[in-house]
């Protein structure tokens, strides 16, 4: 006599197999409908071609070359990242320390002005590859030299000569000079005054020099009565 429990177990197993089969058929048709074979083949062929272009063969190749920042604030550091394949030597101009052949490597730089970097890779077969890009560098507005004022603060006549006291104030100045020369170059003077006694009307130019060669200038014309 057949056991009913055995029959029920067999039925459950057959049912499970049927469910799996139907699900597989459904998913296969769904995948085929939404991912036609030609499309999949074309995509795979494109990927294969791209991989071969970048990594295949024995020719020297530059895989990447860029800066972390697209626009750098003057005085701040950044890194140049590069990758080369089949290279026996690499160099970056302007010269950067720590450069050597690698699939992926970053080195630190701190340019103070717009700089074009050029990476050159030399291959074992005598070939070479080269790439360049321009790294833009912007001044930090808060550190630029400025002249707050440059003016005549006093005028007197002694012994028939006109004597003027000129007063100035500046910010972020490392060096201060006047033309025509009146005093030796000052260093780090945020404000000051000096006397002049021109024989005729004269225009003085105050120059304040700051970091990275930035300059601020202001002119002042001292009019001498009857001096032309």
Q: Architecture of the largest domain in CATH? A: Sandwich
Order of helices and strands: HHEEEEEEEEEEEEEE
CATH class of the largest domain: Mainly Beta
Beta-strand fraction estimate:
over 45%
Q: What average pLDDT do the residues reach?
A: 85
Domains counted in the coordinates: how many?
2
Shape: elongated
Helix segment tally: 2
**Class derived from helix and strand content:** alpha+beta
| Overall number of strands | 14
Give the spatial strand order of the biggest sheet. 2-7-6-4
Share of helix, binned: 10-25%
The first-to-last residue Cα distance is 138 Å
CATH topology of the largest domain: Immunoglobulin-like
What's this entry about, in short?
With 228 residues, the chain is an alpha+beta fold. 22% of the residues lie in helices and 45% in strands.
Overview of the structural elements:
It is built from 2 helices and 14 strands. It folds into 2 domains: 80 residues, Sandwich (Immunoglobulin-like); 81 residues, Immunoglobulin-like. The longest helix is centred in the N-terminal third of the chain and has 31 residues. The model has no long low-confidence stretch (mean pLDDT 85). It is 22% helix and 45% strand. The protein is elongated and about 120 Å long. It is of the alpha+beta class and 228 residues long. It starts with a helix and ends in a 6-residue tail after the last strand. A hairpin with a 2-residue loop joins β8 and β9. The strands form 4 sheets. It has a 4-stranded mixed sheet with strand order 2-7-6-4, with no helix packed on it.
Ordered list of secondary-structure elements with their pairings:
Layout: H1 4-34, H2 37-55, E1 61-67, E2 71-73, E3 78-85, E4 87-93, E5 105-109, E6 115-123, E7 128-138, E8 146-158, E9 161-171, E10 175-179, E11 186-187, E12 191-196, E13 202-209, E14 215-222
Parallel strand pairs: 2-7
Antiparallel strand pairs: 1-3, 3-5, 4-6, 6-7, 8-9, 9-12, 10-11, 10-13, 13-14
């Amino acid at each position: 006599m057949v056991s009913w429990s055995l029959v029920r177990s067999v039925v459950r197993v057959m049912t499970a197999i049927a469910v799996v089969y139907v699900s597989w058929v459904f998913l296969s048709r769904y995948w085929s409908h939404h991912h036609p074979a030609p499309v999949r083949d074309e995509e795979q062929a494109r990927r294969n071609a791209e991989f071969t272009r970048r990594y295949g063969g024995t020719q020297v190749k530059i895989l990447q070359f860029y800066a972390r920042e697209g626009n750098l604030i003057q005085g701040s550091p950044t890194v140049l990242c590069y990758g080369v394949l089949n290279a026996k030597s690499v160099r970056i101009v302007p010269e950067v320390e720590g450069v050597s052949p690698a699939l992926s490597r970053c080195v630190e730089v701190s340019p103070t002005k717009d700089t074009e970097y050029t990476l050159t890779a030399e291959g074992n077969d005598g070939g070479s590859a080269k790439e360049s890009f321009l790294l833009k560098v912007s001044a930090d507005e808060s550190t630029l030299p400025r002249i707050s004022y440059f003016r005549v603060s006093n005028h007197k006549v002694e012994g028939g000569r006109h004597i003027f006291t000129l007063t100035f104030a500046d910010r972020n100045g490392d060096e201060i000079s006047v033309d025509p020369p009146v005093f030796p170059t000052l260093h780090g003077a945020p404000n000051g005054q000096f006397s002049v006694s021109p024989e005729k009307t004269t225009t003085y130019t105050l120059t304040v020099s700051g970091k990275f060669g930035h300059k601020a200038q202001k002119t002042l014309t001292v009019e001498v009565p009857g001096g032309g």
